[in-house]
Design goal:
Length: about 160
């Protein structure tokens, strides 16, 4: 007879047949990723004139998002209080799917139109990809957000 997992506020990570509090895995894992990011910043030379200070600044800035990422990757949803049983069957999941598909089509349409226009410009146009690629990402975010909000309002 299988025993239902204990539900807690922070949940557990399941490894084989055992369970460990998810935070016990996420915190050390995130701190290790933060330290790796700090070390990478020093090796890449972007840590400034004081490598030790640069290491700690980068490690501190990377650590908390890394802890959150590791937590999301290891936590077993069935051990969380208030977690939806089947989140893929929810109305919100349908809105996300429709908004994502629509925003992808928006990006294809806009980028295709831009490529067509650029193909017919007679002189060479120099663009900085450091500006263009974030603009494309921002366009995708905006399209997804607007579509999601419209679907939410429709119900």
């Amino acid at each position: 007879m299988s025993v239902a997992p204990t539900r807690t506020k922070w949940g557990y990570a399941k490894f084989g047949t055992g369970r460990v509090p998810a935070a016990a895995v996420a915190v050390p894992g995130g701190l290790a990723l933060g330290a790796a990011g700090g070390r990478l910043a020093v090796l890449a030379g972007i840590s400034g004139s004081n490598p030790a200070l640069g290491f700690w600044v980068f490690a501190a800035c990377i650590a908390m998002p890394a802890v959150a990422l590791v937590y999301v990757l290891v936590v077993d949803r069935n051990t969380l209080i208030g977690a939806t049983e089947r989140p893929d069957d929810s109305v919100e999941s349908g809105w996300i799917d429709k908004a994502a598909a629509g925003s992808f089509m928006d990006l294809i349409l806009v980028l295709g139109a831009a490529a067509t226009v650029l193909a017919f410009i007679p002189r060479e146009l120099v663009v900085d990809l450091k500006l263009v690629l974030p603009a494309v990402i921002a366009l995708g975010f905006a399209s997804f957000g607007i579509r999601y909000l419209v679907l939410q309002r429709k119900g």
